[in-house]
Specification:
YpeB_N, 11 helices, disordered N terminus, 3 domains, alpha+beta, elongated, about 425 residues, 12 strands
């Protein structure tokens, strides 16, 4: 009898242990899933808060009603998105309610300004303080990076907190919530697929060159590699357009260059070698880059940006329109120059070779006093071609506007209809 009882008790214990292990494993999986879910929600809220602050800043740039329309729309939309993110998080109810109410008032205020119910001057006055409040809210989300965003911290601070506040809520119901969140995900769209497709260079009317002519053109462009061993192959049949791929090797230097089959235009160049610890000056870098651009025949360009890392300078150039010297950013060239002696390490001229089609466009003067708030001053102005929402190249006023409290902005305004095409805050 005792033996029978012992067997029964042992069996029950084993079943209990197996059940406990199974439940614990399930809990751990759910815990991990919840940690990932809440971590993603926290990251999303942080990113949206940054965008909201930037949009609020942009509403303080202008006084013109049309210029304000887009940033006010952004404030209304993003504030609503953040409320959705916050409502999905198991944070303190009181804190949630306070910020939900604040964000709701912020969004409604932007809508009232857009509808003409609140003067823009009153909005801009109030937003001076709102910017600080938004920054404070961003600081409250700073725990997303605490302990490297570790699962243990997120589970302790949020998952377990949720259970403590809702004792009757089981792991199963929490798991169902995670499942619902997961099922709400959707694939990325490809609305800009046409823009991303490579062009076939139909505008180039030059005759095809032979492999021997490509070799000759390579030595003409890069005379320093006249003694290099080279190997030339043609592009595959599924390439966006025909080109020659030239691989070279000379001493410690190896690399390649691509030339179009039509006319032998330089598409790209890349070279690798060891680097010294010396560093050329910024002016030397600019002089070297200007020399390269001249030698390659890219004389209708202008440097628009440069940055550096430990071994190289990275430079960006844009084509200049013939009739008005406007920068065509879409027709860009990128250079990579060695930091130790200014030697060319890389070049990408694909965008330049593809060449955007630019249409004629009227240039209607703008009244900066009416467009910008009195706190901003325009420090720089020139013309540039940039894309609008329909991915059309539009001629625009490129303005650098400065406000001591908010910062410096680069703004693109359509020269014909005065639409604000882009407005970005500069570092």
């Amino acid at each position: 009898m005792k033996k029978t009882i012992w067997v029964i008790v042992s069996s029950v214990a084993v079943v209990f242990l197996v059940y406990h292990f199974s439940v614990q494993s399930q809990n751990n999986r759910l815990e991990n899933a919840l940690a990932v879910q809440y971590s993603n929600q926290l990251t999303s809220a942080s990113e949206k808060l940054t965008k909201l602050t930037e949009s609020v800043d942009q509403t303080m740039l202008f006084t013109d009603k049309e210029a304000l329309e887009q940033p006010l729309d952004d404030v209304w939309r993003i504030s609503s998105d953040i409320r959705t993110s916050i409502s999905a998080l198991p944070i303190n109810n009181e804190t949630s309610a306070i910020w939900m109410n604040y964000l709701n008032r912020l969004g409604n205020g932007a809508a009232q300004v857009k509808d003409g119910k609140v003067p823009i001057e009153e909005w801009q006055k109030n937003m001076a303080g709102a910017r600080e409040n938004l920054q404070e809210l961003s600081n409250q989300w700073a725990f997303t990076n605490k302990d490297g965003g570790s699962k243990d911290y997120i589970v302790k601070a949020f998952v377990q907190n949720k259970l403590d506040q809702n004792g009757e809520k089981s792991w199963k119901s929490l798991g169902n919530s995670v499942k619902a969140y997961t099922e709400s995900d959707f694939p990325m769209t490809a609305s800009e697929a046409d823009q991303q497709k490579k062009k076939d260079l139909q505008h180039i009317k030059d005759a095809d060159i032979t492999s021997a002519e490509a070799k000759e053109k390579f030595f003409k462009l890069f005379p320093e590699f006249k003694d290099a061993k080279i190997h030339i192959t043609e592009s595959s049949q599924d390439a966006p357009y025909p080109f020659y791929h030239i691989q070279f090797h000379e001493g410690i230097r190896i690399g390649y260059a691509d030339l179009t089959k039509k006319g032998g235009h330089l598409l790209s160049f890349l070279m690798e070698r060891p680097f010294e610890k010396t560093t050329i000056t910024v002016q030397q870098m600019k002089d070297k880059s200007a020399e390269y651009m001249k030698n390659f025949g890219f004389t209708d360009t202008e440097m628009v940006e440069y940055r550096e890392n430990s071994i190289a300078w990275h430079l960006s150039f844009a084509r200049k329109a013939q009739d008005n010297d406007a920068l065509i950013y879409a027709d860009g060239i990128q250079l990579k120059i060695a930091k130790d002696n200014g030697e060319l390490l890389g070049l990408n001229a694909m965008e330049y070779i593809q060449k955007e089609k630019i249409d004629k466009q009227k240039i209607v003067p703008i009244d900066k006093a009416e467009l910008f708030s009195s706190n901003f001053s325009v420090e720089e102005e020139r013309l540039a071609y940039v894309e609008n929402k329909q991915l059309q190249q539009r001629l625009a006023y490129q303005l650098i506007a400065v406000n001591e409290s908010i910062g410096t902005y680069k703004i693109y305004i359509d020269t014909e209809n005065h639409e604000i095409l882009h407005a970005e805050k500069l570092p």
